[in-house]
Write a structure and sequence with these properties.
Blueprint: H1 2-15, E1 35-49, H2 56-70, H3 75-100, E2 103-112, E3 117-123, E4 134-140, E5 143-148
Antiparallel strand pairs: 1-2, 1-4, 2-3, 4-5
């Protein structure tokens, strides 16, 4: 039982380790050409990115709850409590996964040099982005991130 519980906990923790941070680039996006658009931030506002519900949390919780519940009482009671424990564990496991993968983020509205406006939501990063900042929008492999524009030097 301890081995099953430990495995379920490890699976739930691995599911919670994903991020949408613009400071973290996936391995598949490294060494790829990216398109870059210049712009100015019009506004930013804090938002929350809803957590994922992959089913790993519910499965892990259901297994742990079912195993723990089945060890209660006699044979008949163990079956009933095991089923109830599995259902309760699945509900709790799903909620833990959802809350554990939730991220604080920022919605950034940018006006491009062309006059077009774009809105991008990304996890909070090391940079403090605010209205008026010159930024670049970097698109790689369908993923977009906003970062402060590097200084332009003229020769």
């Amino acid at each position: 039982m301890k081995r099953i519980a430990a495995s379920a906990l490890v699976l739930a923790l691995v599911a919670a380790c994903t991020t949408t941070s613009p400071d973290v680039i996936s391995k598949g996006d490294a060494n790829r050409m990216a398109s870059v658009l210049d712009g100015v931030i019009l506004s930013t506002r804090p938002v929350t990115v809803e957590g994922s519900q992959s089913g790993i949390g519910a499965t892990a919780g259901g297994v742990v709850g079912g195993v723990a519940g089945s060890s209660v009482g006699g044979h008949r009671e163990g079956i009933v409590v095991g089923v109830l424990g599995a259902v309760a564990g699945a509900v709790v496991g799903n909620a833990v996964e959802r809350m554990g993968t939730r991220e604080e983020a920022v919605e950034i509205v940018v006006q491009l040099q062309s006059g077009e406006r774009r809105a991008i939501v990304q996890a909070k990063a090391g940079e403090d982005l605010k209205a008026g900042d010159q930024v670049v929008i970097v698109t790689t492999g369908g993923k977009v991130r906003v970062t402060k524009a590097p200084p332009v030097t003229r020769n």
